[in-house]
Amino acid sequence: TVSVSAPSTDIAVTGLSAPASVGKGGTATITVTVQNVAVQNVTNSFNVVLTDATAGVTIGSQAVAGLAIGATATRSFTWNTAAAAVGNHTIVASQTLADDNTGNDQRSAVINVIPQPADLSLSAITAPSQVTVGDTVPVVVTVQNVGGQDVTTSFAVVLTDGTAGNAVIGTQTFAGLSIGASVSGTISWSTGGAAVSGHILTATQQLPDANSSNNARAIAITVNPPSVHVGNLDASTTSAVDTWTATVRITAHDSHHNPLNGVTVHGNWNSGADVQCVTADADGVGPGTCTLSLTLIPITTRSAYFGVGSLSAPGYVYKSAANHDPDGSSNGFSIFVRH
């Protein structure tokens, strides 16, 4: 007597590949393989489901559109452990097709979620690329906790000037930082005594951590010499019997448009010889001014022309492009005095 039975259906989970451990907050890649180990094709689709049995949560589910006799299918899952508790987790892979052999429908593996060490990264440093001697420069530093532990202690960021022998510019203290969070602060750099040159400023976070390679960032800032320019030109006249006098008052400004004393103004009348005056405090006018006059102009001559040649002061550079006249009576470079 030969007993002939109906062909069986049997989809088995034949493989489960997973790392033995993963740092908390990291991502584990888990690969599941299923195979049709019976003697008839499976034409119905079914799912491969991956769960964290320890936490009682589903990691993911992926479909398989049937399997021929002996055929295999592999599905890859990613498990983000940011919300997982530290410790061993039993990961179970199972297939959902109802078959004739439930004993091979799932496999399991243990993954140990280990605490990541603390890691503070100096993630950004920003500041103006060009400044003038005497400016107070805001240097903004940003720190991010890229490690696997909250930082509950305060830590400091120190800003140094590599061009000045790593002299300390300032320190910013932060009161801890949770995982993934960022915090920014401003360290002010007073450039009153800074050398006129390029400066490399470096911000370094001081908390000892597992990764020293991301603790610092640098930025290049050029410190320019102070500049002077024409801030105003004003004209006036006085008359005599047969002649008249043209006078121009020049106001010198620094880069912040503050009146500046001690500036030698070079100019010329009617494109003639160079004439000079030095800015100082003037009664009723204020600081940073001086006047130049052209006398004995014939009464029949109705106007005189004055042009600025240059401005000079110890330690300053003349920035002619900044010349201006707020009342619009000139273009900041020249003016016509009309009688």
Share of residues in helices? under 10%
Number of helices: 0
Broad structural category:
mainly beta
Radius of gyration: 40 Å
Largest sheet: 5 strands, mixed
Topology, number of strands: 25
Mean pLDDT: 94
For the termini, the CA-CA separation is 138 Å
Task: Assess the beta-strand content as a share of residues.
Answer: over 45%
The H/E string reads EEEEEEEEEEEEEEEEEEEEEEEEE
Spatial shape = elongated
Task: Please list the strands of the largest sheet in the order they lie side by side.
Answer: 2-8-7-4-5
**Ranges with pLDDT <50 over ≥5 residues?**
none
Task: Please characterize this protein's 3D structure.
- The protein has 339 residues and is mostly beta strands.
- It has no helices and 25 strands.
- It starts with 10 loop residues before the first strand and ends with a strand.
Features:
5-stranded mixed beta sheet; 57% strand; mainly beta; elongated; 0% helix; 339 residues
